[in-house]
Structure to design on (415 residues):
């Protein structure tokens, strides 16, 4: 499959490409943003309690902690 | 001449008409913002992460990093001409891969952990077997006519690349040949991200557009506009229904795929630096965005507020990554260091 070098495309080629792409995109079925945002919010909130970067992690369980030094039992 | 101009004018008029239709369709479904949906959500408060490790070893600017799927190993790429594979639990370097070309811009770890890939101003994506006794070049994928800005493995047999030649490409690693070429951007492609279900991917480019592509058909399905400069960083939200972009215009944006539009913008009047990289925390609530101002700023993805900052680098933060288990965040910088935070 040959590489299409964009430098070889004329201005007209680019304009035709753009029109064809827009003709595809204009047909898209679009959902209501209120519903979509609600779903994103619900998705995040269902996972946020387990999100270490939001909730934090104890020293013992932290895989990235610096090792060595004194340990007070 | 006149006929050509008339033709161009007609095409331009058709484009403008179609764009107006699309904007009207987007407006028609825009009945509520993310701020509205998140109004009842509790604040995350101030996010204060601690620096846990500084990984020293590179001798020049770090341009890219990528976590292994095991959430423990990580590969970094520097213009000192090396890839380094790190064990992030111990801070040890496991493997050093010398590069033919030092001008590296991107690096990727295969999900299997067997392979890494890199590329840059050489226009080539080189794939290495790092499980061999010493790193062995498996393939040199050479067909792009511009720099390699980003690469991501689908598996040990397929890899996606984004290039300064404005195209993205899906390669077959068994044959070393291109399978699908994705053409539609009119500016250098700067970054790409695979969807969680691996059926689609998104690309961000210097034409300030983000595009969603069907991986197998090669077709561009959707185009997202709004940024006013190069999109340097792009990521899928974990559900696969939204994407996050970061741009030289100093903003990050979330675009929702099903309503086909921007639903929230992450911007701050005090932030005058371009966004170089971004990564999401495991729930998607936090966005870690690396900026040219030497910091990685932390955003609350739902409320659009800046909730923290990772400070410590002495130069631009060029790359950011959160491992699959969400245990921490890694930042890489032109100061030659990588830092691990959580």
């Amino acid at each position: 499959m040959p590489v299409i070098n964009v430098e070889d495309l004329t201005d007209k080629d680019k304009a035709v490409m753009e029109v064809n792409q827009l003709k595809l995109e204009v047909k898209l079925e679009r959902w209501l943003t209120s519903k979509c945002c609600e779903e994103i919010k619900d998705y995040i909130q269902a996972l946020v309690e387990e999100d270490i970067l939001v909730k934090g992690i104890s020293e013992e369980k932290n895989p990235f902690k610096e090792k060595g030094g004194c340990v007070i039992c | 001449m006149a006929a050509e101009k008339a033709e161009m004018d007609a095409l331009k008029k058709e484009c403008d008409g179609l764009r107006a239709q699309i904007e009207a369709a987007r407006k028609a479904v825009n009945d509520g913002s993310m701020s509205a949906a998140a109004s009842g959500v509790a604040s995350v408060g101030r996010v204060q992460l601690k620096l846990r490790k500084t990984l020293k070893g590179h001798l020049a600017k770090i341009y890219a990093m990528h976590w292994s799927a095991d959430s423990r190993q990580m590969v970094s790429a520097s213009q000192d001409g090396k890839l380094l594979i790190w064990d992030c639990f111990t801070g040890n370097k496991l493997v050093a891969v010398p590069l033919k070309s030092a001008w590296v811009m991107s690096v990727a770890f295969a999900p299997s952990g067997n392979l890494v890939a890199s590329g840059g101003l050489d226009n080539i994506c080189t794939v290495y077997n790092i499980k061999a006794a010493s790193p062995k070049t498996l393939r040199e994928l050479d067909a792009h006519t511009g720099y390699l800005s980003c690469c991501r493995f689908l598996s040990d047999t397929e890899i996606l690349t984004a290039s300064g030649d404005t195209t993205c490409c899906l390669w077959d690693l068994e044959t070393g040949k291109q399978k699908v070429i994705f053409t539609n951007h009119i500016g250098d492609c700067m970054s790409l991200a695979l969807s969680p279900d691996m059926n689609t991917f998104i690309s961000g480019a210097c034409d300030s557009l983000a595009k969603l592509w069907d991986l197998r058909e090669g077709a561009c399905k959707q185009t997202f506009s709004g940024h006013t400069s190069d999109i340097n960083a792009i990521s899928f939200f974990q559900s696969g229904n939204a994407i996050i972009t970061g741009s030289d215009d100093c903003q990050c944006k979330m675009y929702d795929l099903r309503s086909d539009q921007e639903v929230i913008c992450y911007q701050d009047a005090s932030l005058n630096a371009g966004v170089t990289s971004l990564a999401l925390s495991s729930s998607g609530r936090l966005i870690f965005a690396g900026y040219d101002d030497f910091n990685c700023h932390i955003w609350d993805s739902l409320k659009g507020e800046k909730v923290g900052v990772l400070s410590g680098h002495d130069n631009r933060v060029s790359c950011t990554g959160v491992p699959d288990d969400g245990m921490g965040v890694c930042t890489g910088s032109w100061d030659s260091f990588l830092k691990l935070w959580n």
The longest strand of chain B covers residues 92-98. The CA atoms of residues 81 and 99 of chain B lie 5 Å apart. Residues 47-341 of chain B form a domain with the Methylamine Dehydrogenase; Chain H fold (CATH 2.130.10.10).
